[in-house]
User: What shape does this take?
Amino acid sequence: MNIEIEKKYDITEHDLKIIEQSCDFISEKEIIDEYFDTDEYILFKNYYHLRKRNDNYELKIETTDRSTWIDRSQEYETLEEINEQLKKFHINITHTIGQITIRTIRKKYSYEYKWYTVIFDIDDFELWSRYEIEILVKDDENVDGNKIIEDLRNHLWLTAPLFTQPWKAVCAAKKQNPAAYKVLLER
Assistant: This one.
């Protein structure tokens, strides 16, 4: 299991230009995420994000440090790993149904910084655009993700403010699934 550490920012022309000029372009693609949960939304309520991304299931268990806005997610990508994590709710993947669908155009860049390969994801979602800076670490590493990301931003002269819009699933649920929207707002 890997741990993804990420922080999201508004996209500005200044930062976009630096990312495009300083980082290695990896890809641009459309991502279709279908989020799954039970009828009682047990996963959403517990910050478990079970999704099918372009035909592959993924589970992200997320925590957010509200003082730094760093998201730290445990990621599971095999059905065996996912079902093992869902056992604590006495369910498996077959007990879930599609709740929300999100389409995003994503440009992905990489940058070597210190001993990390840092990924920049530039997302264009129907309501807004943003970018995130992410690093992957092993589950046993004690890493100050905020320090690494902020040091990198200073190194590259990135200045965009933190992204403060609601999570994509909240925006999608508002239009697609009012019951899920209410659950996501209450957590």
